[in-house]
Write a structure and sequence with these properties.
The protein has a domain at 139-248. The model has no long low-confidence stretch (mean pLDDT 79). The protein is mostly helical. Helix content is 78%, strand content 0%. This is J domain-containing protein. InterPro entries: DnaJ_domain, J_dom_sf.
């Protein structure tokens, strides 16, 4: 990330240097056209980093960046509405493609939620008409198990809360420690995070092997069911984190992400950035000399 910031800052300097160089005496029309095209390419990609580049972009593009962005957003909006069958509205804040994609994603999620809710209601009505006494009894048992799981969480929470209640502590330092621990307990309880509550019990030495040995099979079953649910949620969170990482860094190897697969890719990206930074620094150093500038324009179609 520091390399990317450095690279961006150098490219912004490059735009200003090209803008200044455009006025050099002795440049030919083709050379000025090349400078103009380079400015438009660079500034168009970097305006989201530095809005002050808009006037320079407009100067050399013969257009207006905001109008172009609005036109592109309008075209994209029309295509999305036609493809997805949704109305994305006419809000004034839908000026960027990212805004449109987020709005479209939200509409799709709402539609999916509505369909799922409707399907669930239909299924519930159909199942209610068809349920046998055996099925009804199984549902009652499942509801009882869920109630027991919730009860298990409450029991662990009550034990921790009783042991950590800061108002009962006279020592200021110990009261502060218990206050911090109680905050962690409350956060875990609010999220129904049994695993975190049990970890806090272990951390505070409120669970010993004898207590574990005397846990009933029913209680162990309840604990395991809750922990399985949390494992599934953690798997979903890991998947979302991996997808975000792949998108940000352009990592697309097959299989799960691992240091062995990712680090070589990142190392190659880092080396490419360093190489680009060196090239851009060399280009910037040549801008004070017309001969070097002309030689550079002839040799390169892009900078950095």
């Amino acid at each position: 990330m520091p390399l990317k910031r450095t690279h961006t800052e150098l490219q912004i300097r490059m735009i200003h240097s090209l803008d200044h160089a455009y006025e050099f005496d002795g440049l030919t029309k083709p050379e000025r056209r090349k400078i103009s095209a380079l400015i438009v390419d660079l500034a168009g990609d970097l305006i989201h980093e530095d809005a002050s580049l808009k006037p320079i972009y407009n100067k050399y593009s013969g257009s207006d960046f905001d109008r172009e962005a609005a036109a592109q957003a309008a075209e994209m909006k029309s295509r999305l509405e036609a493809a997805l069958g949704v109305d994305l509205g006419d809000d004034d804040d839908l000026h960027s493609q990212d805004d449109l994609l987020q709005r479209a994603r939200a509409h799709l999620q709402q539609q999916a939620a509505k369909k799922a809710a409707a399907a669930s209601k239909r299924e519930a009505r159909r199942a209610a008409r068809q349920k046998s006494p055996k099925q009804l009894a199984a549902e009652a048992r499942e509801e009882e198990e869920q109630a027991q799981i919730s009860l298990s969480i409450r029991e662990v929470y009550r034990k921790l809360a009783s042991a950590l209640h800061p108002d009962r502590e006279t020592d200021p330092q110990e009261r502060e420690r218990k206050t911090r621990l109680m905050q962690r307990v409350n956060e875990a309880y609010d999220k129904s995070n049994l695993l975190q509550l049990l970890e806090l019990q272990l951390e505070l030495e409120h669970i010993d092997q004898r207590a574990i040995n005397h846990l009933s099979e029913a209680r162990l079953t309840h604990y395991n069911e809750m922990l399985k649910d949390q494992v599934r949620e953690l798997d979903r969170q890991i998947h979302r984190a991996e997808m975000g990482f792949r998108h940000t860094y352009g990592v697309h190897p097959p299989g799960a992400l691992s240091p062995d697969s990712v680090l070589p890719h990142l190392a190659a990206n880092i080396e490419a950035l360093r190489h680009s930074i060196r090239n851009t620094e060399q280009d910037l150093a040549a801008f004070d000399d017309l001969k070097q500038l002309r030689r550079m324009l002839k040799a390169r179609t892009t900078f950095g």
